[in-house]
Write a structure and sequence with these properties.
With about 500 residues, the chain is an all-alpha fold. About 80% of the residues lie in helices and about 0% in strands. It contains 17 helices and 2 strands. The protein has a two-stranded antiparallel sheet. Helix 3 crosses helix 12 and helix 5 runs antiparallel to helix 10. Belongs to the inorganic phosphate transporter (PiT) (TC 2.A.20) family. It is a multi-pass membrane protein.
Amino acid sequence: MNQYHKPTLDKDLDKLSYMGEATGSLGKRLVAPGIGLLFVLVCGLVATLFFFDSPGTYIVAVAAVIGAYMALNIGANDVANNVGPAVGSRAMSMLTALLIAAVAESAGALLAGGDVVGTISKGIIDPAAVANPAVFMAAMMAALISSALWINLATWIGAPVSTTHAIVGGVMGAGIAAAGFAAVSWGTMGQIAASWVISPLMGGVIAAFFLYLIKVLVVYRDDKIAAARRWVPVFIAVMTGAFATYLALKGVKKLVEIDMPMALLIGLGSAIASLLITRPYVARQSRGLENKNQSLRKLFKVPLVVSAALLSFAHGANDVANAVGPLAAIVHTAGFGDVASKVEIPLWVMAVGAFGISFGLLLFGPKLINMVGQQITKLNPMRAFCVALSAALTVIVASALGLPVSSTHIAVGAVFGVGFFREWYTANSLRRFNYVMAKNGRGPKPTRPQRNREEMFRRKLVRRAHFSTIVAAWVITVPASALLSAGLYLLLVPLMG
């Protein structure tokens, strides 16, 4: 048989096989961008149908395409913060997380998304400075393009950034290019800059505090299951109350306006009801469980999945305006020929934002979900539970204090807070040290644990490279979006005249 062996033919066949595999792999990589491109083109077509025979048809169509592109990028980047910890802790699979978040995001945007948005993005720019319709549409278009491009770049490098900050930077840059530095409300910008520090710190401190409570009250107890029966319902009740308050303040603004005292009462009632319901549930779930940490994680999985869905709903209700706010402003100006301080969002424009965020999550979300859930620090259901609880509580505290905060910064800050707290607690906790010594049969030690420098470095539980990348991306989001927007405005304004 060997006499029929043709080495040249085998090489050619191998080359064809490799080319086939490479082509198949490339084809798979192009599926998601292809679907995304189809989506933005359909959005442009829909806009054309709604503005057929109108003088501003082409402007609205282009704006719809850009708004859809922005929504895709928000879904790819921002939504990871809601479901990343749950996926990283293995409370649910990537596919389950994508489906739950996509449905919850769309529901939040369409059912509770704000139907009126401020076109000057929370008072960043003086409306009188951009009163000319052509100038205004060019500024909004530049802001939309610049923020979308920046979020796309951040997603590519693996950095979760604030889409709110990106759009604010875009509006500021276009406003400066259109009317100079005097047009900017620098007091408002100062508050936004302060949120760069406030949001992650608050999120990290609150998450670390609850992780400390879980460790002290449940994890490092001789009878973990008995401690879990007592305290896990309390933690779930706190989370339920926090999310009820959060949704009352931020998630249902379109349906009903609720002030802080009423929201807190709703949260308190929800917490009490949750405590009454979850006590027997946790007691039933804990029967037969072994007295070890792995058993405790099972008790946190269901509330963690629910929290991911609620975070996604609230995110859809609040952040859809980042994608469609400037688009709604352009649609209004093109249709009515005037610049309004506030405009209503048409249903088709809201649908562009809602479905765009969901498509972006499904097509491009796994990269950032893995980053937030797995690559910053190791999460389990208890740690991820603390992250989700921190996200809700931080928004409530910030709202009560009147502080502007970023949900992205809060969630990622909470992940960092959990990781850095674990580093400190592992190295310094006498309670943990004595527990581990007793478990290994060595008896408790009355002194604090001693570690050499090499061991402490080896046991770092937060990846410093990701920390540096993410913080750097946060700091430059506003200035980068602003500079890009200013340049785009100077290119666009002649075309709008």
